[in-house]
Write a structure and sequence with these properties.
2 helices; single chain; four-stranded antiparallel sheet; mainly beta; about 150 residues; five-stranded antiparallel sheet; elongated
Length: about 150
């Protein structure tokens, strides 16, 4: 069966950056499973998997626009250091949950720290990066009506 919309797909992958550094992998774990056509994985990878079958292996290069997006400068924000009351030491790389527009929670990463302010970044950690996937398709099957209604594989 070929991968198409409303198929339940399982695949193993290794994700590397442009320097060949491994960012993530399913090695030693269960394969990643998603419902094709329901935005369960990044668009650039999903598009390349369409039409493939179980047992196939492929390399996919995903540009930022088809991955986690370009870096949005509006998501870089200087926050007064007083906003981090109760946090003794603030270091670049630390993650915090912030309240975004509309009151929804958003993860931010500390990029820089000065005496007066902290530069936080609300972009996805992989935004702006070219992503290299090495994929082996494990299985492809028709999704159940319930999976399609819920938008994900059970």
């Amino acid at each position: 069966m070929k991968i198409a919309n409303n198929c339940a797909v399982s695949f193993h992958y290794t994700l590397t950056d442009e320097d060949g550094q491994t960012l993530d992998s399913s090695e030693g774990r269960d394969p990643l499973t998603y419902l094709h056509g329901h935005n369960g994985i990044i668009p650039g990878l999903e598009n390349e998997l369409a039409g493939k079958e179980a047992g196939e292996s492929l390399k996919v290069v995903v540009q930022p626009a088809d991955g986690y997006g370009e870096i949005n400068p509006d998501l870089l924000q200087q926050v007064p250091r007083e906003a981090f009351q109760g946090v003794e030491s603030i270091e670049p790389g630390m993650q915090f949950q912030a309240q975004g527009e509309g009151g929804q929670a958003q993860m931010v990463v500390v990029r820089e720290v000065s005496e007066e302010a902290v530069l936080v970044d609300g972009n996805h950690p992989l935004a702006g990066q070219v992503l290299n996937f090495d994929v082996t398709i494990d299985s492809v099957r028709e999704a159940s009506e319930e999976e399609i209604a819920h938008g994900h594989v059970h």
